[in-house]
Write a structure and sequence with these properties.
By secondary structure, the chain is an alpha+beta fold. It has a single domain, classed as Glutaredoxin. Helices cover about 50% and strands about 15% of the residues. A hairpin with a 3-residue loop joins strand 8 and strand 9. Helix 3 packs across helix 6. Keywords: Signal. It comes from Stakelama marina. This is Thioredoxin domain-containing protein.
């Protein structure tokens, strides 16, 4: 397994949902608390550095999502256990949220900027900052909105840049990348991809542009850890079926 962590996903096809086809459903049970859909037609994608891999697993998350924060350590552990022919890519969810779509866009841009910095010589530092953002971005946003006067989104960017600097990366370099055309284009590509996947909620996993796996929003009985373990088990089964 290799963590791709590159901020480009190019998708040019729309999608529609159907249930898992019988060829897959015959011997793959959907765990309690989990939903799985087939993307029909599949969404072709071009990921730099991924062309030699058998299967691409994409996790879709949001720093301000408490469920994503709980799922992240489990997903990271699962990802490190996968074979070398499985590529892992994480995508920030950029289609708006009930909390604040501007915050979501800002934090998504921050993730993309971190991954670019990781590619440019800070792989460990960018990963550490990425993990810290799950704990730091939402509390700061809540503090900012309750201040008198309330903070601005410029304050949010400065806060994120300060956290990046704390991990040993350049604050000004982060802000330059954050506002760059490269990040603009990555945001557009990710939004196009997520529209094609028709993702109704997060955290979510997409396997090879063919299958979507996520918690069942209508299930209120299955324990959260059981749901997340079920998602990962099902993801592994679907990935194993890929040629």
């Amino acid at each position: 397994m290799r963590l791709t962590r590159i901020a480009f996903l190019i998708v040019v096809v729309a999608s529609a949902w159907s249930g898992l086809q019988p060829a897959y459903a015959q011997d793959i049970a959907i765990p309690d608390g989990v939903v799985a859909k087939e993307i029909d037609p599949p969404v072709p994608s071009a990921i730099p550095g991924s062309h030699d891999k058998r299967v691409l697993v994409m996790e879709i998350f949001d720093y301000a999502c408490s469920h994503c924060r709980a799922f992240q350590p489990m997903f990271d552990k699962w990802a490190m256990q996968q074979a070398d022919d499985v590529d892992i890519l994480q995508l920030p969810y950029l289609l708006g949220s009930s909390l604040d779509s501007n915050l979501q866009l800002l934090s998504g841009r921050a993730y993309i900027a971190l991954m670019i910095m990781g590619r440019n010589g800070y792989p460990t530092q960018s990963l550490l900052a990425h993990r810290q953002f799950f704990d730091e971005i939402l509390p700061f946003y809540q503090h900012m909105t309750k201040s008198d006067p309330p903070g601005t989104y410029k304050d949010m960017v400065e806060f994120m840049a300060a956290q990046v600097a704390r991990e040993g990366m350049g604050k000004d370099e982060f802000k330059k990348i954050f506002f760059s055309h490269e990040v603009d284009e990555a945001v557009k590509s990710i939004q196009q991809a997520e529209k094609s996947f028709d993702v109704p909620g997060i955290p979510a996993i997409v396997v090879n542009g063919k299958y979507y796996v996520a918690p069942d929003p209508w299930d209120t009985k299955t324990p959260t850890d059981e749901v997340y373990n079920g998602m990962l088990k099902l993801t592994g089964q679907l990935a194993a079926r890929e040629p």
